[in-house]
Amino acid sequence: RPAIDVSGFATTEKGRAGVAGIKAAAPGFDPARFEAGAKVAYEMIVRAFADGDKTTLRNLLSPAAYAGIASAIDQRQKAGEQTTTKLVSIDETDVVEGAAKNGSAQISVRFSTKMITTTRDKADAVIHGDPDLVISTDDLWTFAREIGSSDPTWRLVATESDHKH
Asked: What backbone phi and psi angles, to 5 degrees, belong to 121?
């Protein structure tokens, strides 16, 4: 059968090899569908974190990733702080790494985005961010799922961020 062209999803050799490896281990894997789902998940997770929506986060994150995020939400709420995040755009996604091993698949995606994030204290004063400043962000998010699982959800297992003005 013809090889799938994954160049649109992965610009690096490592990324292309990772996608090909997952495709070999899980023939039903559809890179275009994964990419579309990853963008939706990114937006949902960013919004849910800002809103303190633990139910949504629990469904989209691995237990370990959820524990860290839930703790950050609890600290923010305990301090009486509120965060608002407006995702202006997802400018680019790029699969930078991927692998299938031990019955599990993992994919690392770099999201290049623009967003406005502001955290306010109890008195509604801005303590982090700027409500008028759009920040460019590169986030490296790693998603995982069990190969052959009836649950189609790729859960977020790790994140790294690089914020630029």
From this structure: -85, -175
